[in-house]
C-alpha cells in the first residue's frame, strides 16, 4: 500500500482564512487571501511579522475551519493508501495539543497512530507529500504535490492541486 | 552523515523512575524498577492498568528526571550524526507541549527542527533507532538498538545498550 503524507495548515485546515479572521477582528480590515502577505501592511498598517505572532497564541490553531472537501477525500484516500498527517508544528508548542484535538474533532476516522508533529519533514518516509510549503516539498524524497495557497502560486516544479476535488482526481 | 533517532521515555527521560515516584507519593509503597509491572499489584494493590492513567495527567512527563549521561553523549553524537528525537506521544495530547519544554530545558542544544512526536515510528527514515519498546524496534527499517529497561530485558534479537556510556562506546 502506498503511503501519502498530508500537511495540515492550508491543506486540511484553513490557516490563511484564520489569519484573515484575526486581521478583521483585531484591525477591522478585510483583506483578500492573496493580500495577506503583500497588501496587509498597506491596508491595515500591520506588518506580516506581527501576524506571525498569532501562531503562538492559544486557540489560533484550534479554531481553524476545515478546508472544503478534505474530510470526504481523506476518508476515501484511506481506503486505497496509508495516510499520515504530518505537520511541522514543534516550533509552536501550544499548538501541538490543539492540532491533535482539531483532528479528533474534524477527522475522527484518523487514528492518532497516523499523526506526526515534527520540525523537518524530510525524514518522513512516504511515497507522496501534499503540502503548501516549498521548503517541505523541495526536501521530500518521495513525490511532492503542491496544494495551492497564495504563497505558492509561483511554484512550477511540482504537480499542483487547487482543491480537494483535484486531490481525488489525482489519487483515486 | 548518518542519522540516529532517539526515543525519549526510558531512554532520555526516566519514565520508570517517575512511575515509582508516583507509586510512593500516592500509595506510600516503594517498588523496585523491575517490580513496576509485576510486583506492583501484590505490593501496593495497584493494578498496572491504573498506573497507566498517570500518563494522561498534567505534569507527569514534564517532571521526569534526565537519564544519567544522556545529555553529554547526545551532544557528542550530534557532532558525528544527525540526531532526531522521536517520541510516540500523540496518544497523550497533554504530554506534547511538556515533552518539547522538557527537551528545551534539559537538551537546549537540540533544535526544535529535530524533534518528532508521532504515533508509529516505522515511517521515520533513519539509520539507527535507540528505543526501549519492542514494537518500535521490530518495525524499524534501519538498525534498531534496544536501551535496557525492565520491560525489555527478555529481548535478545537486538544490539543492546545498558546505559549512555555504552551508547557512546557503540557510536563514538
Name its key features:
homodimer; 172 residues; alpha/beta; Rossmann fold; 2 domains; six-stranded parallel sheet; 7 helices; 6 strands; 35% helix
CATH homologous superfamily of the largest domain in chain A, by name?
A: HAD superfamily/HAD-like
Describe the global form of chain A. globular
Instruction: Give the CATH class of the largest domain in chain A.
Output: Alpha Beta
Total individual domains of chain A: 2
Tell me the helix content of chain A. Answer: 25-40%
Strand composition percent of chain A: 15-25%
User: Could you describe the largest sheet of chain A, including whether it forms a barrel?
Assistant: 6 strands, parallel
Q: Could you list the spans of chain A in which at least 5 consecutive residues all have pLDDT below 50? A: none
Quick rundown:
The first copy, chain A, is 35% helix and 16% strand. Chain A is α/β, with parallel strands linked by helices.
Q: What this model shows, in words?
A:
2 copies of one chain form a homodimer. Chain A has 172 residues and is of the alpha/beta class. The first copy, chain A, is 35% helix and 16% strand. Chain A has a 6-stranded parallel sheet. In chain A, α6 links the parallel β4 (128-131) and β5. β3 of chain A pairs antiparallel with β3 (115-118) of chain B.
Amino acid at each position: 500500500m502506498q503511503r501519502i503524507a498530508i500537511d495540515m495548515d492550508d491543506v486540511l485546515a484553513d490557516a490563511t482564512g484564520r489569519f484573515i479572521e484575526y486581521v478583521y477582528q483585531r484591525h477591522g480590515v478585510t483583506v483578500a487571501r492573496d493580500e495577506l502577505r503583500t497588501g496587509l501592511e498597506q491596508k491595515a498598517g500591520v506588518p506580516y511579522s506581527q501576524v506571525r505572532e498569532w501562531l503562538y497564541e492559544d486557540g489560533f490553531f484550534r479554531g481553524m475551519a476545515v478546508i472544503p472537501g478534505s474530510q470526504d477525500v481523506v476518508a476515501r484516500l484511506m481506503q486505497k493508501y496509508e495516510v499520515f498527517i504530518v505537520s511541522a508544528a514543534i516550533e509552536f508548542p501550544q499548538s501541538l495539543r490543539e492540532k491533535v484535538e482539531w483532528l479528533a474533532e474534524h477527522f475522527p476516522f484518523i487514528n492518532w497512530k497516523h499523526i506526526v508533529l515534527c520540525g523537518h519533514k524530510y525524514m518522513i518516509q512516504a511515497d507522496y507529500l501534499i503540502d503548501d510549503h516549498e521548503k517541505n516539498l523541495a526536501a521530500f524524497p518521495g513525490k511532492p504535490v503542491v496544494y495551492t495557497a497564495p504563497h505558492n502560486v509561483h511554484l512550477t516544479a511540482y504537480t499542483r492541486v487547487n482543491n480537494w476535488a483535484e486531490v481525488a482526481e489525482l489519487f483515486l
